Amino acid sequence: MVRFALVFVLCFFLPCIRGISFYLPPQDKKCLKEEIHKDVLVTGEYEVSEQQGLSSNLKVTDSVGHILYSKEDAKKGKFAFTTDDYDVYEVCFESKAISGGNFRFPDQLIILDIKHGVEAKNYEDLAKAEKLKPLELGLRRLEDLSDSIVKDFSYMKKREEEMRDTNESTSLRVLYFSVFSMFCLVALATWQVFYLRRFFKAKKLIE
Fold first, then answer.
1. What range(s) does the GOLD domain occupy (predicted)?
2. Residues 51, 76 contacting (CB under 8 angstroms)
3. In 3-state terms, what secondary structure has residue 84?
4. Which H helix or E strand runs over 13?
């Protein structure tokens, strides 16, 4: 019952989690990376403080460089996409100087709020579309959160199985290599014994 209550509270408070903010120096680039599962809705909302003479470009890409969202002179906006595969996704802000000269520009403040999975769903629109009561909406949100947790555990189990198979395969290869190395050493030692024996017989040092 305590676990159910904890999950229920997390379900209601997860959408209230605030984003992150950081300062972007002029002519600099900062990126944020995150691993996200397959078929997951990702939404982002950003706001860049305006500085005269500076502009910031925003680009969202995956690990192979596919551009999922791009915006030049990004000031304030939103983006959304659904992941095609489990991958590392990157959000980059790059500062560019509009005017020339050796002016000293102040850093730009960037506020970024990224949500994915249950956090990214708009349950208010869902409640209006399906005419859900507050309790029904809370149960729907709890159901989605439970499914997300189950998927995470399934993925962790799959990764654990893959790592175990890799470890077993590596151990087996190491065993075969060790046996082969011992066989080579024994064969080399035997050949040396017979070679020295023939050498000493040829020199008539032994009979």
1. 29-116
2. no
3. coil
4. helix 2-13
